[in-house]
Write a structure and sequence with these properties.
By secondary structure, the chain is α/β, with parallel strands linked by helices. It is about 40% helix and about 15% strand. The strands form 4 sheets. A 7-stranded parallel beta sheet has the order 3-2-1-4-5-6-11, with helices on both faces.
Length: about 375
């Protein structure tokens, strides 16, 4: 990994930078923390708890400064940010499960909307801060379940409480950017650039969250049971966990470099033609671990979940020159083999996966590997 640090990824912008991550104990947050630490960043985490057992963040044993706190507690959050005095904030903490949002709608809106507002408000008094990357979701769009991908200027909305809460959070980001961190006032009245990054369904090793396809499969392998798969014909733009993270980090690089034209909303995902059905993802997964067992349930369920959702990532492809590294075959293989190594060999191969992902990106001359 040391040799990879010397490659000056993202123009070496993160070396010795103070990076504040909310939700670093979550699935994507833990992978982001791993990547940043290995690029020489000084990482500070803020999270209310360890959300799962096992937990990827705990398994990584990263040497970073952690504060236990709830993003809905603005005083605690302000104190943690003030203590860190970060160069950049990646806001990832959220209630992320659609079905959970039906059970606890008020908690979902509180965490996702008020938590985001608290983060933005706390940032207003942070003197060293230069950039905020708000991590959002493809579900923030008003989903018509049509065949076209959603663009960054399409209407926001949400049928379920989770999707609606993320749309509301996006509006809060938009409001704070216009009111207090306006791009036209950058370098005059303030020195902070804010961007929002929207990504779809992400898979990879180390995810044990409930009501997610791969973690549910893994839990049933551990318990020796078949899993009942609802909505097997649903189509999603799945991508390997490091793909959107590379987009977040590239976006953060542009903001840290003071390029205010990038301080807006961005989609990160595969080309729409690379989206696959739930049933197809399962078939590919079973090829790499034959102990996977499942039953497909085609009945209509009471709780509404979108059957089709695609992002149009043309903006990121053309203006950021960002693009994915892995196709869905490699993505699924890497994910399943991570869990197979963990359960059969008691190995955590996250460093190896990050190493191999970066090596592949270097070979393909991906923009964030080029000086």
């Amino acid at each position: 990994m040391k040799n990879l640090i010397k490659r000056n990824l993202f123009n070496n912008i993160y070396k010795n930078k103070k990076v504040f991550i909310t939700g670093q104990t979550g699935f994507k947050g833990s992978w982001l923390a791993l990547w940043l630490v290995n690029m020489g960043a000084k990482v500070y985490g803020y999270s209310v708890d360890i959300p799962t057992k096992p937990n990827h963040y705990e398994l990584l044993k990263l040497d970073i400064s952690n504060t236990k706190g709830d993003i809905r507690d603005i005083e605690s959050l302000k104190l943690a940010i003030k203590k860190c005095d970060p160069d950049i904030i990646f806001h990832m903490a959220a209630q992320t499960i659609v079905r959970e949002s039906y059970k606890e709608p008020a908690n979902t809106f509180s965490a996702n909307v008020i938590g985001t507002v608290n983060l933005l408000e706390s940032a207003r008094s942070c003197k060293n801060l230069k950039a905020i990357v708000h991590i959002s979701t493809d579900k923030c769009y008003d989903n018509k379940e049509w065949i076209w991908g959603y663009r960054e200027n399409d209407p926001l909305g949400g049928y379920d409480p989770y999707s609606a809460s993320k749309a509301c959070a996006e509006l809060a980001v938009f409001s704070y950017r216009n009111s207090f961190f306006n791009n036209n006032d950058y370098g005059k009245k303030h020195n902070v650039l804010i961007a929002s990054a929207r990504a779809g369904n992400v898979i990879g090793g180390g995810d044990w969250a409930k009501d997610r396809l791969i973690p549910d499969i893994i839990r049933n392998i551990e318990n020796g049971k078949n899993i009942i798969i609802r909505n097997p014909n649903s189509t999603r733009p799945w991508q390997f966990v490091l793909e959107p993270l590379s987009g977040y980090l590239l976006l953060g690089q542009k903001l840290l470099e003071g390029k205010k034209e990038f301080a807006e909303s961005w989609n990160f995902g595969p080309e729409s033609s690379r989206s696959i059905k739930v049933s197809e993802l399962l078939e590919f997964s079973k090829k790499h671990w034959n102990t996977i067992k499942y039953k497909l349930d085609y009945t209509k369920h009471e709780l509404h979940e979108a059957s089709m959702l695609h992002l149009d990532c043309s903006k990121a492809f053309n203006l950021l020159n960002w693009k994915p590294v892995y196709d869905h075959n490699i993505m699924i293989k890497k994910t399943i083999l991570w869990y197979k190594n963990f359960y059969e060999n008691n190995k955590v191969i996250s460093h190896q996966d990050l190493d191999e992902y970066i090596k592949t990106a270097v070979k393909e001359n991906i923009v964030w590997t080029i000086l």
